[in-house]
TrEMBL record:
Subcellular location per the Swiss-Prot or TrEMBL entry: Cell membrane
MASE1 domain sequence ranges: 5-276
Presence of the UniProt keyword Translocase in the record: no
Membrane topology reported for the UniProt record: Multi-pass membrane protein
Name under which the protein is recorded: MASE1 domain-containing protein
One Pfam family it belongs to: MASE1
Keywords, comma-separated and alphabetical: Cell membrane, Membrane, Transmembrane, Transmembrane helix
InterPro entries reported for this sequence: MASE1 (IPR007895)
Amino acid sequence: MCETLLVAACYYGAGRLGLSQQLVADGAVVTPVYPPTGVALACLLLFGVRCLPGIAVGALLVVASLTAPGLSAVGVVIGNTAAPLCALLLLRAVGFRVSLSRLRDGLALVFLGALTAMLISSGAGVGILVLTDKLATDDVWLVWLAWWVGDAMGVVIVTPLLLLLHRARLPPPSGRWGEAAGLTLVVCVLVPLVTYSSVSVLFLVFPILIWAALRFQLAGGMPCALFASVVATVAARDEAGSFGRLTDVETMMKLQAFNGTLGLTALLLSAVISEQLNTRRSVERACHELVEALQHLNAGGPGSTGAPGRDGR
């Protein structure tokens, strides 16, 4: 019961946080990044299907905070619960590792856990709204696209960060602490400046993101991507900086393209670097073991053990 309540509380908190950054496009309210999908999938990957009741309760609380309970609310809750469960089953089927230490893990999370599984939540949600006459048919594709991308970006950006935090350990003091502090300062200063600049220079965020992913893998890339996504979402909501003088639809499309590219770059580049580092460590370990084996064989040879030679002495 305590675990169910905790998962529900985390889901609800993430839902309210995501809904606080809503955008309006042609009269439809959209959420560029919906964190609860990432929270739900991370809980399922870490603790198993026993988290499903908590996810369902959390989804019901989020929906109840927006509209009166009814058939549409039930449909949305079912879709938001089934989508992360489907993502879990798909990821288990391909041997997904929560360490995200291989490129195949990053690709599986993006294409199976995010883009494929979240078709369920977006399809169920939009479908039930159409069936209950709460959504005009002219807005179906726009709302569906925004719903699908928002849920998918929640998985791409939030799930890796939660998986990382679950296994995080404080590293020993080293010279990289200075680089980490410098990177944090650059991100906190430069990302808002670039985002709120009257000149559209959002692309300048990507060299910083690449630096973070190359040097610190997921621990650097995903927080950087999340921070940039939040800053860009706030700027888009305020129609400021790079998102000024755009129509509602243009703002939504630009923001979702930016967030999607951020998440994919951080996740996949971090996975590639981690896989290369793990391969190098494995090779070094194998070479070290081979050297030890050779030394052991040499130490056991006739010349070093004092065994008698051919003349018997």
